[in-house]
Every structure is written in C-alpha cells, then in structure tokens.
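Methods: example folding runs. The two proteins below were folded one after another, and each record is reproduced exactly as written to the output file, sequence line first and structure-token line second.
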Amino acid sequence: MWKTILRRVLIIIPELVVLSILVFLLAKAMPGDPFSGSINPKSSPAQIHRLMEANGLFDPWYQQYWNWVVNLFHGNLGMSYEYQMPVVNLIKQRGMNTLWLAFFTMIMTYAIGLPLGIYAGKHEGKLPDTITRIYTYITMSIPFFVVLVIGIWIFGYALGWFPTAGSVAPTANGFGGTSLSRLSHIILPGMLGALFGTVNIVQYLRSQVIDAKHSAYVKTAVAKGVPEKDIYKHHIFRNSLLPIAAFAGYSITGLLTGSIFTEMIFSYPGMGQLFLNAVNFRDYTVITTLVLLYGFLNLMGTLISDIVLSIVDPRIRIE
C-alpha cells in the first residue's frame, strides 16, 4: 500500500509541471495588465510600459516561466501587484481564514449528514424519511447564493445574531477574544454551507442504508438473532459509507480552496475572494499560485479518497 502511495505521489510531480505551464500561459494570455488604473487612474501609457518592463512582463514567456519556477523553489512566489505584498504572506493570511471556515463547515456537514442519512434510511417510507426527502429536494432546488443572502438578512440583519462581514471584529483583543470573534464570524456561513453539503451525503447514505437493509447478509444476521443496533453498527453503516468515503478527499480539498459565493457575499477574506479579486485586477502572480495550489489539492484529494476508501472497506486495498 505504501509503495502505491509513493508511486501516486511521484506521478503528481509531472502533472503539476504540466499544470504550471498551462496556468502560466493562460494567465499571461489574459487581456489587460495589472497596472492600468491600479497605480494611478491618470497614468500615461509610457508609465505603464515602464512598469511592465521593470517587472519583466515583456520578456519571452519561457524566460518568465523559468524565473518563476526558480523563485518558487526558493520559496519566493513573487509580489502581488494589487496588494503590494509577498504572495506567500498573502496566502498565509487568507489561507488560515479559509482553513477555519472549511474545518467548521466540514465538521457540521458530517455531524448533520451522517445521522440524518442513516435515520432516514432506517425509517424508510415513514414520516422522518419523508421530511428528510423534502428537505433535500428543497435545498437542491434553491440556488446556493440565494440561501446565503436570505441567511444574512434573517440571522444577520433582522435578528442580529451573527456578524455579516469580515473574519474577526476590529475590537477583538487577546487570544480568547479573537477566537470567539472568529467563531462568531464563521458560524453563519459555515452552517449555511453545511446545509448544502449535507444534501449529497444524506441522499447517498439513505440509498445505501435502504439497499443494505434488504441485502442477503443483513437478512442472515436478522435470522441469527443479531440485535438491530449491532446490525446497523457492524454491517449496514460501514458498507453504506463507501460512496461517501470515495468523495471524502474531494470534499475536504474543495472546502480548502474556498467558496467564492460564500466569501464574496459575506465579505469573508479567504482564498475564494482572493482568487476572484486576482482575476479582476490581473494579478498574475496570485492567479498562477492559487490555480497551481488548487490543482495540487485536487490531486491530493484523489489520493486521500483512495486511502479513506481502503480504510473503510478492508476488501479494497491499494496494491
């Protein structure tokens, strides 16, 4: 198993090289430049030309790419044209905000989705199952950004329970005050994101539980007099987790890349908002770094999904 994991990690290296070249070329092919309007709206074309020349933007693409790769291995991802700070520091700041939000969203997603899916499948055709299906149908039919806007209006403005912008209140002091402020800022977007994230988990798990209930090995266990709690714990639940485990890695890495909708609507300074701003301002250094990071996380998500799947089902081994 470990040899296969090592081979998979080694395969990721050429994939990242190809991805970095494509991302670099696509970023350079974007129309416009990172300086027009960002330095001074009245900047002359000659001033813009000098800035681009000083930053090496007129060099051949392969020379720019080589310089970028050399700096990358030295831990230098360049300077952000928009924020005028090292990209490494910028991603560290935004990445921690996204990490906290993703961690909370993931916990709430599985804390709600797993029991709800099992409960619905266990009571197939009954009132709890019907209510659960109505919840999933309604959630799937409403666009995510609409729910975010409604959530802000109800819980942020009407009730005033949660803040509606930022990651930490400016008045927060000390470790305890900062932690509580950060938590209050991620509860509302995290819960709204979890409500949407539970839909697929609930549907998959419900279907798998219903199928497992009517399988031969469960009927045999019932005939032998095995208690219902043990049947669900040792037979139905573990086998029903296979489809969810297959997508676990993608779910985790997807949350880490940040949700553009959530972060823009809540003005939450995370990775998603950073990426959108970088595209708007032609911030090439930030764009290439973030897309390469997203690609790496997706590749790692594939590996994590295979590992989790092999742990959940001992019959499936990566050999």
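Second run, written to the same file directly after the first:
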Amino acid sequence: MTGARLRDKAAIVTGGGSGFGAGIVKKFVAEGCRVLIWDINKDPATSLAASFPANATSIFIGDVSKASHWTNALDQCLDDFGKLDIVVNNAGVVHVSKASEEVEEEEVDRMWRVNVKPLYYSAKVVVPYWRKEGMKGVVVNLSSISAPRPRPRLVWYAASKGAVTAATRGLAAEYANEGIRYNCIQPVLGETAMVAPVHGGVDTPERRAVTLAGIPIGRINTPEDIGNAACFLASDEASMLTGVCLDVDGGRSLM
C-alpha cells in the first residue's frame, strides 16, 4: 500500500540497509519521503538504494557511535535533500543469549555505544539544526519489548533498550514546547540478524517455537510491521503523540 503520508519529508534512517531499517526505508519511500540510508555496511545499503527511483534515497556509510559521523550525515542530508525532517534511530546490536555474568564487558560497552549513545549524538547535532530553522522535527527510536519486559540471559541488552525508552520519554518532555516530537517503538523479536543471538547463537525451528509460544498473535515481527509503525509515528497523523512507547509485540508484553 502506498500513499503520501510523508510527502516532501526528508529522513535519516540508521541501520537502514537491512532488517527493520530496510522495512522502514521502504515504507518511508512509498509514502513520499526521501531517505538517507545510513549503514555501517556499504553493500546492503547500495543494494537497497538501487531498488528505488533516482533521487528517492542517498547512502551514508558511517558509524552511529561516532559523534563526527552525525555531523557528516546531517551535512550530506542537507546537500542531497535540502532539509531534514525525521530521524529514525534504528541501528542496534544484541549479545548472544547467555548467563548475565558470562557476557563480556566489551559486549556490554558495545551495546551502550550502538543502542544508546546515538540518541545523545542525534539530539546534540540535529536539535540545534531544527531550532535554527524553526522546524518541528520528529525522532523515532527503536527500543524493544525487553525494556518493559526483560527476560533472563538477555539482561544487558534489555538494560540498553530500557535506556532508549527512558531517554525517549525524557527528550519528549524536554523538547515538546519547541514542537519536536520523540517517540519509540518496542518490538518483539523480528526477522532480522538478531534471531540467532537471541536464541543462544543458533536459529532453529525448535528455538523459534519456544519464542512463538510467548507471542499470542503467533508470529514474530516483519520489517514491514516496524516500517508501518515508524511511518505512523513520523507522520502528521501522530502530531499529538510524543513520549509514546509503542509495543509492536503481538501481545508478548501481556504474557
């Protein structure tokens, strides 16, 4: 289904080359948005961009955990599209499910750098731009249903996503009077590269069955599910929503 819910908008989507990020990019483009596909890997971003009409997207290869890359990404977006209306902090990592005391410190630090620090960097770089231009920007952050419903053996991942949820709500309160909206999505497991690590490093029908047993709707997320949710939160239809943490979890949080 296509439309014009994001017509004349320009967005940055981090981790946009694959998984949930690709689903978000596809939905945004279908709804009239021009998108800077930010990924750390060139090949998936290039392949995805090639599937769209010319000038609908551009590519930025960079690391969301580096402050200077945020400045460079904003500069490129302004060069390519003339403005920036929407930021989607989608890029994220997870550790392999294991006993909490066995997770290496480097992995914990990596999750903090990739899952949490980009919210700080994007606020530091993009909010002043919106303020200078008098724009009412929108930020959509990808949290996780593990933030309100943490589970054993993925505690440090849940902790990083809990920080995303808390930061989203705090930033929403701080910038609402400037017309800048912050919301987040809290997905259940989806068809991404995270399936194997969440299942202890392997992706098997048996381990998926255990996960599915805890999701009343009976399936995991698709990239399209997350694209649809992100599009709504980024659109003017959600202009009264800020500080919302939307559970896209098939009822997982009810279990």
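Comment on the second run: The beta strands are 10-14, 34-39, 57-61, 86-89, 138-142, 181-187, 245-248.
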